[in-house]
Amino acid sequence: MSIGIPKNDEVYQLFGRKYVYETRLDSNVHYDIEIYGLVETERYNEAVRKLDPWIIALLTTFLLLGLFGMPYFKMLFIAEDERLSSNDVILSGISVIIGAPILVIVFFSLMNHYYDYYYKFPDRLDDLSEKITTRYEAENAANVTTLYNMSLANEERARENSDSLTIRISETNEVYRENHKFISKIDTATGAVKYHIRLIDKNNIENTKNLGSRPYYTDYVNAKNLWYIDTLAHKIKYVMRPVVSIEDQSEEAIYLLKNKQDFISGYRVGAAQLKSLHEAILPFGFQFAVVDDDGEVWFHSKKGRATLENFLYVSRYNSKLKAAMLARIKAKGMVNYRDEGQLYSINPISNTNLSVIALYDIGLLRTKISEVLTLSCIGIVLALILILIITILSLIIRNPKLGLYKYDRFLFEFLTPKKSLKTSYILLSIVLIGLVLVAFLISFYITPIIAYILCLLLAIYAYLIIFYTLHPYRSNGDFKFKIRDFILLLAIIFLNILTCKVNDNQMNFVLPSLLVQILFLVFIYMNKSSKNIKFVTSLHGRIHSLTQTIVDAIRKRNSSIRIGYRYWYALFLFCWLLLSTIFPAYVIFKNAKLLNDEIWSKTNKIDMARRFMDKEKSLEASFPAFKNQKEQFDKLHKEHLNLGQYHETFTLVETTDSQAPFDNQKVPFLEDFLWQIRPTYDVRINEFQGMVYDIAHDLSWASEKNPNTFYLNYLDNNKAICVTETNVQNSAATLPPQFILLVIIGLIIILAILFSLILFFSDRFFAFRFRHLEPNDFDTNQKEGYIEKFGQILHDEKSNSGLLLIGPPFCGKQTFAKEILTDAGYLRIATLSMLQLENMPMGSDIGENLGVLSSSYQKGQNDFHHEDYEAFVIEHLEHNIKSFDANHTKLKVILFLISQRKRIILVSEVYPSQIFSMYESAQGEAEHSLGKLQDDFNSWRNILSAFPQILIGITKNTEKVSKKLNFGLKSDQSPSAEDISVLTDELGYSKFLPTLAPVILVKSLYDTPHTINQPHRLDRQRMVMHTQNLAHGYYNDIWNTLPTRERYLLYDLAKDGFMNIKNRNSLFSLMKKGLVVWHDRPKIFNYSFKNFIMTSVSLNEALRLENKNRGKGTWANTRILIYLVIITVIVFIGLGKPELLKDFETLVGTLGGLGVLIPLISKLLASGGQKM
Q: Which residues cross the membrane (predicted)?
């Protein structure tokens, strides 16, 4: 029952429970008892909603994974009209770099918890319950046997000569002190005491004169729950019952049996303090209970529970355990005992109705893994901060952005995939994998802090190797770049100094470490100087050549296996990720667990040592020595202490002198750091926080690693408890095969996920799926015979009268159209230009005025007769496209020619869809009849849909650039081969741009008087700007012919070199037009057009559609859902951790820290996720 009641303006929760009291001594005794208690409602609610620390840790970890996984969700759910920016690329890289170690740590944490939960601690509980059972069975048999076989003749004769009810044990029977404290003889009929025999110097039993009401007496008399022991000589019937001594309030075991050979008849009663059960010294977190088949607790490792509770009453989910009790079998599982989850192992005690239940608190398992998870995350965060600083330092000092025009603005451009670097990716992958293997082997032989520094050095060296291998400006000798190199070198020196300090400058470690790092620096220097030193250049060339030869040989032998450079690039990134984050995460977790296990081991040792001291003092009070028998009693105490301690590897002994093993009392940095940052998730652990140190600052305790011992000094004498830990078999060698298989499968899945994630991001950002697309070259590709094929289309009887050629300006559409008609045999060809459309009178007869559109038309003359021509080329169909009247006239012209059965080739710079869109959005046109517009729309759709659409692209025209540069230049203006290559890359497209080559070359040259044989050099910035200015009209014409989606895809691509490939139709069209070309990834065909887009396009135009549709995309909707989930988890953590709500500063810090991430990531993601 539970209800809330107010009292004195305070709200309390009322709890009630009913009990029934009955006793076997009197069947008429029956009491109904109701107990009620009040708990403050606030404390009740806090306790009810409080979550376990491991749940808080896991929720927080998955929350971080969710936050850093948002770039993936964006790329997964992004709509085709949403933008993508370089921020998305950087955030995606960060999400993988941070998410991978978190994922690895969570996986190993779960596997460690799984191993502890299902293997390690169940096995330890089995071992504990087996040890307790074995020791108790032996001790119980010895107690029964000695009580039965003991000769009491001397004691009984002494009793006849004494008036006292209590007599001292005879010297011949003093050996039985190991089994009993007191021995009594009672009357079989009444239970009256005939005498007591004292085996210890304590006489408080003399007041006990009748045991007839005691349950062990009544059970024996009534033959209830009797046990038997078979010996070679006798079959002993006895009872044993647990009691709490009335005289000194100590827990004891009472034995009762009968020896018919006794001189004084009666029952023998022996009181024993069991070495195996009473005040047992157990490892921290373990407990046990000895229960009967009804669940009554006979003995318990916790004081005050024996004989006072029923295990089944105070536990839940105990059906399996109860069944094991009744079936008398060994079993293990989980039970809720006293509202705490406990792992248990139950073991029946032979020849009794008792079972031993060994328990371990699951909460401590969760606390352990939460501590390891937290320590690991702290280590990873510190490592990532250092790597971030190194990365920023290496990138912040770099080449300027080239102010006259904007390109290559992406900070990590050197990490983008390049086909020319395929061999480098293979070599780097081999080097990185080799480093991982070497580091993995070394990690087993070094201390945790050295392993951590090793991870930092590996990550730094891996980054430097890659940076100085792939970065285009790696060999730049400017002073600012030397500063960058010096700063990076300082970071390496600092970590090496820290390593030396940790190892106390031990040369056996320092020298190998320095030699290995010198090799790294030599390798980095060779990459950095590969273009400046002839020998290094030659060596690089040979290595690359050898690698390429091996790859080609493998490809020839396995011709069906072809691995594209995108996979080598992804493999290189994966190997880098493996070395810089995944392997360090494993090492950090392993060493965090090792450190935490050492702390828990010391916790175990000091806890058991304190219990050892407490039990020693308790034994002095429980077993007071007779005069002049201290040595014998000390031996008895030692036996109790030795047989009552249970641990797999610990042995507790008492030393004769106090210990202070450490001469150096300086507190190491790591221990101070752990003292500050190690979390406490369980109040039971608070008192052991000092175990992060290896020695008490007052030398009251100390821990040594070699040999593995722990000392705890007595305060009242010059002695110490020494806890020694024996070496056990390597746990990895005893791991269950199924667990090893599970871990391997899990790791393979995680690594496969990360590799797939790298492939996913690289495809989405670098558009590898479009690498095969090239500009349409119908007009320039003579081998394929496109002219003849298109001519056959025109000759076909079922042809729809003509073709539609679409393409950017100056791509040769008109020439190609005439070539098709000529090759098809049409000799009489007329060219009509829609640029002359304004000269045609409105509403006039088309047949009579068709000559107005002819290219040979002169005002005042009308000698054009359409009957004289077989085919027509209609140019500039896109002219005045936004005028419905002009479009209506164009439609009439085309319909007229079709009605005259003429062959027509329409030439346009726009798609038919751009014409259709004018009519689809024409409902607001008040000047025109909607019916008339609908008729025109249907006519356009029918005509253009029937014409085969041929897209002509801007193709390369490098030969024309070379020809132009061979004429009109003075001898001193002749460009170098390098300058010609630069000019060709910029101007070698279309029919128009090559014509500008001579002018742009002359305007872009600058004097280089200090260079021998080369008085002039081409300035790239000037070249780009002059090309943009001279071709401004051409570029503007191209821009105006593009559909809106293509414009914004180009704008997005021009901003930072990345675009959303889900807008695949527009990207396909732009690549077929030649405006976007494949140079390791989709790029605008030259820099001047890219700069034109960035500098000449109206910002209002660029953002018009974006502002119209902002926030309506798939990613925008998904982002809202993810935010709701994140906020829900944060609130759930806050409610599940009431301390956060009490400590305002902690609450603000925790939720504020998480809250800052949301808008930051949101802003960066949204900046690329806006509509185009």
A: 54-77, 89-111, 372-397, 425-443, 449-469, 481-497, 509-526, 567-589, 739-761, 1116-1135, 1147-1166
